[in-house]
Amino acid sequence: MRRFAYLTTSVLIAVCASSSLSGSRARAGQAPGENPPQPKFRLPADVVGPTRYRVDLTLVPDQDTFTGAIDIDLKFAKPAAVLWLNAEKLQIKEAALIMDGDKAPVQVITEPHDYVGFAFGHHVGPGEATLHATFQGEISRKDQQGIFQMKDGGQWYVYSQFEEIWARRAYPCFDEPGYKVPWQVTLHIKKDQVGLSNSPIISETDTGDGMKTVKFAETKPLPSYLVAYAVGNMEFVDAGTAGKKNTRVRIVVPHGHTAEAQYAAQTTPTIVNLLESYFGIPYPYDKLDEVAIPLAGYAMEHPGLVTYGSAIIIEKPDQDTPGRQREWVSVASHELAHQWVGDLVTTAWWDDIWLNEGFASWMANKNVNAYHPEWKMNVSELNAYEGAMDNDALVSARQVRQPIESNDDIANAFDGITYNKGSALLNMFESYMGPEKFQQGVHRYLLKYEWKNATSADFLAALAGDDSSLASAFSSFLDQPGVPLVTAQLACHDGAAQVNLAQQRFFPLGSSGAAPQLWKVPVCVRYPAGAGEARECILLEQQSAELRLTKTTGCPGWVEANAGANGYYRVLYQGDLLDDLLKNNAQELSLPEEVALIGDLAALTRNGKMPLGKALALAPAFARSPARQVVTKTMGITAGLQENLVSEDLLTRYRQYLLDLYGGRARDLGWKTKPGESEDARLLRPSIQSLVADGAEDPEAITKAKNLALAWLDDHKALDPDMVGVVLSVAARHGDRDLFDRMRAAAKKETNENFRGNLIFCLGLFQDPEIVNTALPLALSGEFDVRESLGILFAPSERRQTRDLAYDFVKRNWDLMVAKLPTDTGAYAPYVAAGYCDAEHRKDAESFFTGRSTKFTGGPRILAQVLEGIDLCIAYKNAQEASVTEFLKSYTPAAGAGSR
Ligand SMILES: [Zn+2]
């Protein structure tokens, strides 16, 4: 699965489930006699498991409920009086147990929440039996979990999303990933509609009542979370065939969108072919449908029926952009990689979900690099790794392998640590082992566990073979939180050189963490040797170690202590090493190394090892780089300081500094695509114009954006599609009531999902308090589908001028939020306080949200991370404000600056 945020522009927000919003539950009576032991969290694995499911569902769009029947073939390992299954928001109509040809009714136990018990009245088993149950469930118009519906072009469509624990909203089942068995699905749908599931259709029968019965082939073994359905008036785009088995590929879109699926259709077969060739195993399933779901903010890897939010998979050709296309190839590579890692081999339990998600993220990066090396995905992925490192610096950070003891833990498991730290670790150990050896290990792992479940230990055993030190090094990163800070110092004596290395956990200023930790860190260094250069690696297992530079006779002129930027660690250079690297504009460094170095400099301001003023002084040299990735990386040091670190009297100087760094480049790039320009220029333009207009407050840029926004509202051809977001944002931040009304009216009429998302989000960016107070209620009022209007709540919290309004709104309307918010996003409500940087608001947020954050599954850890973030911000401000002030006071624009 891949989740996408549209809650805020700066924080990637995942989604999670709610246990508090359950609907009505059947109360068909208690079992006779004494109460049987209820499951506490997991189903009792040693008693009974499924061997096969047969599911029969009637799904009609624009209805609020569905009906269904399920037959579960069971194998009792020991006698049991009650069969416990997962179920939520279901009314069980009738249930029976079939054993040895006899069918006997069973009693239904509806407590505790999340479970249903089927009581037989006597002990059953060991042996085989079949449970039969009929039920009614909910087709949600608010959530995008369980069975839900979305509207497009005036028509409703029904879809499903069962990861993590929402198959239990569709039918009673063993809703844990370890129960992996075949499913035979039958759908009853309207005669003129399309019904899809994971496997090919084997028959369609008209039932004469305006309905038809669609029967699907039995699936390969699947856990409950990978089964999927789609029903409605959908259309197909043929994408040819893919893979060694010539599997048929189709893009499935809501009615009227076939012309928008061309890029997805063109690219999917290549993506599948590249994955097949890396994994060395043919695409495992009998068909591949890729389905566009209107408004959905995620993509999901169901075997044979991969689903994507429409904004990810389809776009009108004349409104398409390089950014959207790159994102598509990356997301599709992730979901299709899951067909092997996740689907063919499935994590045994949620504590190893990194084996699905970290693996698919890592494989997607590799796949995009193979497909389009000129996109330099290996550089882009560093930003995702660094996002994980920032999260990993928190005391409240999860481990990659975090014990899972509650539904909260399951929800929290789908975070940046699982996806991006997991991916970064695979990248680090691949580089350390060598790509070929690593690939052989991956192949061994997939072959050994195909159609089954696996654990981290299984993966590491397949990867490392007899090399126990490798497995234990990998585990040292999986089983403890945190990112190592590696210090590097060069020592030269008598013609011999060595790098003295030491490790400690990276803790930012203000962190309460202090406990010593040790990892087994693969550290690789690069340095000049003779006419060329050399690379040497060491497994840094103790607190410190010496790495002899054996390929040089003298003292090397520079040392890069994270060769290729493949290590999941921060580097603190000591002595002259940093100056040596920076001496020639860092030209000794590769592009990934340069980007990682800038990231490390930004991180070192946060742990106090580098004054922010010094980093601001170093930034201009990088900002002049011809490489887009380097320029945008400097913004992590330079941008956003006006919120908390620059005093009122120095704002003009700070803005001048930004203009000096980026203004010239912004003017050169302009606001429109130029004939023959590179994609890099196109990709840099929005971020640099945004910083110049919104950070440097350049009046010329603001006026330009406002004029362009008005022109675009009249005619979409007035603007390149990739500039729409930035232009509308700048115009909104500086806009009046008239513009707000126009954007609101335009959002209601807009049919392009990306543009509509831009417009709705921008409603929250106006600064006039009266407008903000008009905008905030729109997030919950139903004027827009709540699944796409939430950004309005979070947009004002990004700026200090409007932050209080959003925060107060959430506090005043909490009960309404609990009732209206989709179950996947409510847990992120505390993010409305994340921009604060003072003790008073921190205390207020803690007292308000503690107790309330539990209303949404996963909420408590998210609140803890928001509060820790405020603590760190306070400490950072206290430590670095003087340094910024000193830098800005002595700052004088360089001659000719700003017009490079
Ligand atoms: Zn995924």
Question: Count of helical segments?
Answer: 27
What separation lies between the terminal Cα atoms?
43 Å
Oligomer: single chain
- What share of the residues does DSSP label as strand, in percent? 15-25%
Radius of gyration computed on alpha carbons? 28 Å
Task: Average the pLDDT over all residues and give the rounded result.
Answer: 93
Question: Strands across the major sheet, in which order?
Answer: 6-5-9-3-2-12-15-14
Q: Which small compounds were modeled alongside the protein?
A: zinc ion
Overall shape: globular
- Helix coverage percent: 25-40%
The total strand number stands at 29
Sheet with the most strands?
8 strands, mixed
Main structural class: alpha+beta
The stretches of 5 or more residues where confidence is low (pLDDT under 50) are: 5-34
